[in-house]
Amino acid sequence: MSMRCAIFASGGGSNFQALIDKRNSGELHAELVLLISNNSSAGAFEQANRQGIKSIHLAPSHFETEIQYTEKLLSILESDRIDLIILAGYMKKLPIEVINRYRNRVVNIHPGLLPAFGGKGMYGSRVHEAVIAYGAKISGITIHFVDEEYDHGPIISQVTVPVFDNDDPHTLAQRVLEVEHDNFWKAVEAISEGRICVDGRRVIGNV
After folding, report:
1. How many CB atoms lie within 10 A of CB 197?
2. 152 catalytic, yes or no?
């Protein structure tokens, strides 16, 4: 039985679209059954609608308390029988109760080589700006499981790209985004097929 996946996205959803494309081509065998976004204007909603994927606008601000939000989020995930949560440009930290319930079943992609250039507030162009400002010669992506801390969970895979002398955050971002699209689905497929396992901080197996 295919793994049932919920995608969390806050923006345009290019990584979501890349996953859809790989599913439609038959290369990705996991089921993309649910989109959750905290942003009502997220472009990912249009992608979900085109593909007939259930989508829900859900944000902490919709609820009086964090507990109410967490309970609603968990009830949605459970009612849709979600096996894996995929964070594809999601700009909110998941409640600890969700992390605990889905331990080593929440996967994120970061546009830098962790543990460098990660942590709270380090996302998107901020990462690329920091890489260039530091004078790093390589950057890339890190696909990792999510734990209680920002950009901290066990690393599934990393792919590098060069940083050129004439790069600005935009040109570096384009290069990094290409490898995001080429590789995120491979990690999801590896998890779905049971080809990797977690031993402490180490992820064992092939992506």
Report:
1. 11
2. no
Side chain identity at residue 177, one-letter code: L
Q: Look up residue 95 and give its DSSP letter.
A: P
Give per-residue pLDDT as tens, 121-153.
Answer: 899 999 999 999 999 999 999 999 999 998 999
Q: Which two tokens stand for residue 185?
A: 């689905």
Closest CA to 141 of 187, 104, 194, 105: 187
| Closest to 196 in 3D by CA, of 157, 141, 160, 146 | 157
The region, left, alpha or beta by phi > 0 then psi within -120 to 50, assigned to residue 119 is left
* Phi, psi for 34 (deg, rounded to 5): -155, 135
DSSP designation for 79: H
Question: Full-prediction pTM beyond 0.90?
Answer: yes
What is the set of domains in the chain, with CATH numbers?
A: 4-196 (3.40.50.170)
Residue of 29, 57, 110, 181 marked catalytic: 110
* 195-to-16, 88, 142, 187, 205 alpha-carbon distances in Å: 22, 21, 18, 10, 6
